[in-house]
Amino acid sequence: MPLALLALAIGAFGIGTTEFVIMGLLPEVAGDFGVSIPTAGHLVTGYALGVVFGAPLMTVLGTKVSRKRMLMLLMGLFIAGNLLSALAPVFGVMLIGRVVASLAHGAFFGIGSVVAADLVAPDKKAGAIAMMFTGLTVANVIGVPLGTLIGQSIGWRVTFGIVAALGLVGLAGIARLVPDMPKPEGVRLRHELAAFKNVQVLLAMAMTVLGFGGVFAAITYIAPMMTHVAGFADGSVTWLLVLFGLGMVGGNLIGGRYADRALMPMLYVSLGALAVVLALFTLTAHNKIVAAVTIALIGALGFATVPPLQKRVLDQAHGAPTLASAVNIGAFNLGNALSAWLGGIVIAAGLGYTAPNWVGALLAASALALAFVSAALERRDQVTGSVPAGSVPAEERTAVSP
């Protein structure tokens, strides 16, 4: 694999750390600023919304900039946001810093996916995408627990300062290792927008929202579920999340490897197994050992869908994949928000802390159904020889293909 993928993975590591570490530092941040925990929770919500809206916005703004330069600008924005958070004198300023950092998230992974895929042979594209996303998954194993420990021991501002320093390392790596890849000639914003007329692109994004939503329906409420149902001590939740992160790393690499060989079968297996495991979690959550194994499996199966779904969007968007790729990153975060909301509803309805697992199972099963629909439509188009709406015309695609 090219060394440039390492630079992208380092940037992804920093982004993944800053996204999730705040969850473990909310009490410290709330206490420092004198706000309530629910108010401090706006730092999580604000970041997620910034990813959803920032992904298309920053990608559109970067349509006339080379991909390497845009990645460097995004890392600069990420560094600025984290420094602003670390130095924030009041809560409102920190919230602004979180939003600024989040604006880089979706576009970085979206553009980074395109760059990673262009760095390798066609039969290794999903593996290259998975290598970049390894930085995000490893962040949940190392970056988040370590950042939480530092924040609780030394101060949360130190954590965000370190994350900003990681951004500097990622920026230097991109500047040094990523080849200068000018924006392909002939690609215009209307080509990028045309991808959203392609039903296959929309189906892939819907699978992203539902499939990833299935994962976070359970994981969002993992702390009360494990302490009140499984009987774990409060301090054990951190290590359970490390297990989840280890599952993410393994699933991401496996998904990338096999998506290059058989993309749709990989989605069938991972989404189907995810739905089953989430449904079983309503039972396994009552036993400590089995619950821990289940959490690792959810991480593995959930992230086994990431490389194939991202590659599916790239493939179906044809010669104008950058905006679609970035918006699909926003779809992951939309799935997080949707599942957290639905999980909260069933808990509030008195159905218990394991009820979100049923929500997750239904969401994953819905994503699996869409995968079958997508494959059926693709077979029909191959038989009839029709071109999906939103595809770049052949004479234009020749000029813009990687």
Automatic annotation (TrEMBL):
Domain annotation Major facilitator superfamily (MFS) profile: ranges: 4-382
Chain segments annotated as transmembrane: 42-61, 73-96, 102-121, 128-150, 156-178, 199-224, 236-254, 266-283, 289-309, 330-352, 358-377
Membrane topology, from the record: Multi-pass membrane protein
Pfam families: MFS_1
Alphabetically ordered keywords of this record: Cell membrane, Membrane, Transmembrane, Transmembrane helix
Compartments where found: Cell membrane
Domain of life: Bacteria
Record keyword Cell membrane present: yes
Principal subcellular localization: membrane
InterPro entries from the UniProt entry: MFS (IPR011701), MFS_dom (IPR020846), MFS_Efflux_Transporters (IPR050189), MFS_trans_sf (IPR036259)
Protein name, UniProt field: MFS transporter
Organism lineage string: Bacteria, Bacillati, Actinomycetota, Actinomycetes, Kitasatosporales
